[in-house]
Predict the 3D structure of the following.
Amino acid sequence: MHFEVKVEVSPREGIANPEGSTIERALPALGFVTASNVRVGKVIRLRVEADSSDDAKSLVEDMCNRFLSNPVIEDSQVEVLQG
Amino acid sequence: MSQRIGVVRFPGTNCEFDTIDAIRALDGEAEVLWHGQSDLKNVDAIVIPGGFAHGDYLRCGAIAKFSPVMDSITSFAEDGGPVLGICNGFQVLTEVGLLPGALQKNAGMKFLCSMQQIEFASTSNVLGQQASVGDRLMIPINHFEGNYVCAPEVLTEMEAENRIVFRYTDNPNGSLADIAGICNQAGNVVGMMPHPERATSRLLGSTDGIGLLRSLLAA
């Protein structure tokens, strides 16, 4: 079976996210004065073949731990979108 | 003596010939090692130079760890062979796990290209053979992702083991503990963001990189 999977890689809590901070400092210029805790990460979408949704999820989690994210500075969250 | 230096070239590397020229000017031998080949050609030391290995796709250095040459370099390093990663080469060394931590975007969100003063914090490594702790050098930086970070316990361990090789005297990028370069436990693997090969002639504004490359050649 094919599964569409979405991976969200985000800067680990406690790690400075200069990209997010820069956006946060820029938002008030447009009048958005209430935004805070802006964090910038990335999204990776992929299609995998697996026997079940759970298998697809653990397969992609393995990819995250070994390649798609750097656990020193990033967290990753895997979501199976559809089978 | 590390008279023959292998300089690694990935697709996207752009400092390999500057590095080779600098080594040859010091009477060392240097040759390119293509990333797709695992043969290290019996070189005595390795430099992973600056640039954008594999386009820096995904993360700086992330794809480079799959290049066949990196398996050989990991074995070479584990056997005590001298390895120097400069700039993108430092990022590659952290991604392959030869050095701890990671390099994230500069705190000011700017690409930085400037002459920078760094200070030797430890000399028990392949670059410190002719130096003393506290020696100050002018070496240029040229990076967007040079903001070093690691877990607090890793920093404590590195400081206890004298593994911080260089600190910036005026931190340009937000790097943790002003770190500009670190080494592994044995001191044979060093990663640094500044470019010593670009500080080898008065015409370039500094000759302070010469001592570092000489130290590598003598390692």
